[in-house]
Amino acid sequence: MPKLKTHSSAKKRFGLTSKGRVRHTQSGKRHCMIKRTPKQVRDLRGTKIMSEADEPRVKRHLLPNG
Predict the structure, then answer these.
(1) Strands in the chain per DSSP E
(2) Where is this region: Disordered (predicted)?
(3) N or C: which end of the chain has fewer CB within 10 A?
């Protein structure tokens, strides 16, 4: 049986922390920035930890063996 591959688009969008949580970039910073206040833009910097309810769906694509 062949090896299972990691989903390519998932590995570009998500990452795992050392404790196994899923890290993702925040949405809402690609376009239409003129509508947002400077505070909204500042708050969208960096990454966030995904909610526990959504983690299994992403981990299924990132860890095909686990």
Answers:
(1) 14-16, 22-25, 47-49
(2) 1-30
(3) N
| Residues sharing a CB contact under 8 Å with residue 45, sequence separation 6 or more, in sequence order | 26
**pTM for the whole thing?**
0.77
- The C-alpha atoms of residue 11 and residue 43 are separated, in whole angstroms, by 24
Closest CA to 47 of 18, 17, 19: 17
What's at 65, amino acid-wise? Answer: N
Which segments in the chain show pLDDT lower than 50? none
CA distances from 32 to 2, 28, 41, 45 (A): 44, 8, 11, 16
- Quick: pLDDT tens for 40-55: 999 999 999 999 999 9
Domains and CATH numbers, the chain: 8-62 (4.10.410.60)
